[in-house]
Structure formats: C-alpha cells, structure tokens
Amino acid sequence: MADDNEPVERTTIVETGGGGGGGVLAVVLLIIVVLVLLFLFRDQLGFGNKTEVNIPDKIEVNVN
Hints:
Layout: H1 21-40, H2 42-45
Keywords: Membrane, Transmembrane, Transmembrane helix
Transmembrane segments: 20-41
C-alpha cells in the first residue's frame, strides 16, 4: 500500500489563448502606413489632379 505521508510531485500546465494577435496588428499597421504614404505622395503618383475652372470677368453679347 502507498504511504499517505510520501510527497507526490504534480505539474500543472496552464494554457493561455492569447496567441495570434500580433499578426493582425502588424497587418493593420501596414495598411495604415501604406495609406498615409499614398496620401503624402499623391501628387507625384498622379492622384492629385486638380480641376481648374476659368470664369471670364465679362461676357459680351451682341444683339442685332
């Protein structure tokens, strides 16, 4: 029979489910950086085309 006074070693393994969040954060951060760079260099990339409308000061109308 086993002696009740004999010490028994036990190991407890605790699993934490906190893995995988770093990859999602890296992708979101990369998308934000790309959008900021596109915004800063939009003129050089050709996305910053501005439409200019010239309105004359006078319109001459000839009525015959």
